[in-house]
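Submission sheet (multi-component)
Chains listed below:
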Amino acid sequence: MDGSEQEEKYIKNLKDKVIKEAKIISISEPSDKKATDLYQDRQNKNIYDLLCAAEQNASIGADLFLFENRSFLKRIIYRWVVRFLFKILRVITVNQNRYNLAVLKILQTSIDADFNLALLAANDRTQFNTRLTDNEVKIKNLDNRIYYLEKNIDFLKNSFMQLNQEVDAIFSDRGRNYAKRAGKKELQGITKKFNRNLDSLYVFLEDNLRGSRTDIMDRLKIYLPILEKANIGSEDLPVLDIGCGRGEWLELLREKNLNASGIDINKVMVKICRDLKLNVTEEEVFSYLKTVKDGSIGAVTGFHLIEHYEFDFLVELFKELYRVLKPGGLVIFETPNPDNILVGSCTFYLDPTHNKPLPSLLAKLLLEAHGFGNVSIINLHPNKLFSKIKESGSEHHRMFNEYFFGPQDYAIIGYKV
Amino acid sequence: MKKIAICTPEISYGDAVGNDIFGMYNVLNNQNFKAGIFAENILTSKGTAENIDYIHNFIKKRDDLVIYHLCTGWFKGLNILNNLNCKKVIKYHNVTPPDFFYNFSYDHVATCSGGIEQLKVVTGLDLDMYLSDSLFNMKEIISMGVDASKCHVVPPFNNIEGLKNLQPDFDILNKYNDGRVNILSVGRIAPNKGFDKLIEAFYIYHNYYNSESRLLIVGNQQHRLSTYIDYLYDKVNRLKLQDCVLFTGKVNDEQLKSYYLISKIFALTSYHEGFCVPLIEAMSMKIPVVAYNSTAVSDTVGNAGVLWDDLNTDLIAATFNEIIVSEETYFYLGEAGWRRYRNNFTNEIIEKKFLNLICEFL
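Outcome: structure written.
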């Protein structure tokens, strides 16, 4: 037996085995349009076959088998009789014959036409599909352009609003007075004011880097239980939010019926908050705090605020806050966590107005040094963009994960005991 | 030095006809012939192909030779072939019958009908020699009235050795080498390839034998056949196989190699094949072949794979199962395929066969 025969035998045995063990499961073809399309061709062929058969049998009449098993004489007589009968029949059925053939002709022509139509339709469908894809691509491009244009419009809107306010100020009485007695100090004030031209840019950056309004409101929800626990938010224990920004936190407090107000120096942000009917003042933090009585505030909050300040400024701030808080009141500050290496080396600097990263240990010591007690730290927002490396119990792996994927922000909470 | 012009309507690197043409070109140039490639559409940057209009500057003597690759209708080429005064050889790669494309693409119906018309003309011309990819193709030519003594089978040159030396695409290896059984089919997505039946067979295998399985369909998707492609996608959705049937679209050689490496079975349910190069690619990589025994498939696979005379999806699914369950069967079929490739389809063997015929004739 040579190799090829052996192979043949092997395959045959294999096939026998498969046939024995095969499960018989027939899939019924569902009767949707496309599936029927596929078999249309086959059906058309059937129609052609039927038509051909009809054509062969179009002339009416019947074959007569009268001549078998008859004697010669009888056959001659029969033949004469049958011929005579056929002649009569032909006269009667000639019209029927013509009619049959005409109907067949019509059927054939109409099926041919159908066939051509189907081909044309298939062609049209292909062309249509091509155009459809082209259009889809174009729409996608347009969508992209609209997205970027909308972003530009947001930026322009903010700039315009700010300019409007500047113009208002200049033409107001105050502006005119400035112009009259423009001493050195006033001029400096005006220059400072124009430096705030960056306000709208800052809003644009915040819109793009920090996250959407609802995202931020979700993130801030974790602080609500802390306020509830300390019974803060009543008439005599209000919340003050420094650097309230777009007012997400104030809005959240209003939803919970808690008493709160905010301050910010960014005109555009203040305008946004006022449009939302939030209680917000446009003022520097120190000049504002000076107007606040001792022990009159329940809680002071600042989200992504303290990293903007110089160190001596921060020290002054904590001193003032201790003064204005009621006993039992508290401060909450959220800030980027430089313990995470990516934050400390890169993402912290995404905000050009940031001053220096503030390690949680330093913040804790500072608060304690100013008399705050029960100071605690909450780690927030671990980096979930990338998967951590697998921990095998090794200390190095754990440290690596903590440094690269650990919390990107932290909150520090201190109480006036 | 004798000149040999290789003509084709369209040349592109990487498809079966393209590989055959470049194979011939290299072999002939290594053998004291001056060979040139002439095409109407040149889709390759290899720089060896010239426009067909320049063929008159190349072929001047009666002793020169034209090898005309016939796979679709190309009447300009036919005219040129008629007008040249030299020796002429046809390499027939088979023309797909237009019937498959009715209801799907009028273009394909037109090209395939053109190809068949052309075949009729070419077989009537009584040229010097007719080469075919497979026995099936040769029989077709003989049935059209060509003298059998002028007909020979020469398998197409292939790029398998090139494929073997390539580094695979590791992304694909990592992604799909996940313990699931991968069943592979390679070929452009067209109605004659019978992918609908393959999907049905896979459905049975997936649901009744092994749910940890995946069907990979590697092949170019032409926009002109979008109706058929939609039909296949519909079918996959209806059978709820979205997660385990993957249409990769056109892939490069590295990706193709990776798909071969991760697959346990090569399946083919094509209704019409002139040779089917992916079959020998699979055999060369020791992948068991399960196929519907239509047209030229048995010429290519021989006894080295499981071929079914009916397109019975139940049996095909059961065959998948048998190969996966029985390690012995898996290795036997892999070895058998590899032997068949070594003995019949390496470029070396094809070269010997081709040169013998050409030298004898010249």
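Remark: Chain A is about 60% helix and 10% strand.
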